[in-house]
Amino acid sequence: MSARRTRVKICCIASVAEAAMAVASGADAVGLVGAMPSGPGPIPEDLIAEIAGTVQPPVASVLLTAAETATEIVAQVMAAGVTCVQIVRHIDPAEAAALADLLPSLRRIQVIHVESEAALTLIPLYAPHADAFLLDSGKPSAAQVTLGGTGLVHNWAISEAFVEASPLPVFLAGGLNPGNVGDAIRRVRPFGVDVCSGLRTDGHLDAVKLQAFMTAVTAADQIRT
Questions:
Q1: Which fold has domain 7-222?
Q2: Within its chain, how far is the Cα of 145 from the centroid?
Q3: Residues near 57 by Cβ (< 8 Å), separated by ≥ 6?
Q4: Residue 159: enclosing H or E segment and its boundaries?
């Protein structure tokens, strides 16, 4: 039985030092949060660019954007100098298509907020224009919009069905931590996992929690076929 390696994205990176810590731990990607209507982790644009400049391939530097149009997203990406963008809103699929046309070499992750089984209906809308999906626990339809960083776990049964139906790789986010990521990998079987608040103590990336998380991912992969 061969193990399948789950990719790891460490999000809410807030400094060059945190990025270096994440890369040293074996992370495949670091997430840099732009302006958001809610949630933890936003940092200034100049700091995003500074951190992205220190992250070398094959590790991906990922800009999280709440922008809703292709032209806005392109401007943010160009200023940030990142290799990938994570679109945290359920934007108009026409804008997703336009972004793919404007920056075809840019890797694009479309966030899907799992509020109900209706999340599955979004697969055909975005799959032609994205490189991967990321399942999170935001509530874009709520009166108080949240777009990630909630620290809440959503319904993994829906996430499992999404992974099975998706033609694209799927990252799982939402309330992951060293204690539950192994179960999440075994149940949902995602391409990758994404974590923010579950690895932070007093607002800072915690080296002990980070190592425990990476160890738990590796252990889960050993029994994953």
A1: TIM Barrel (3.20.20)
A2: 18
A3: 83
A4: helix 156-165
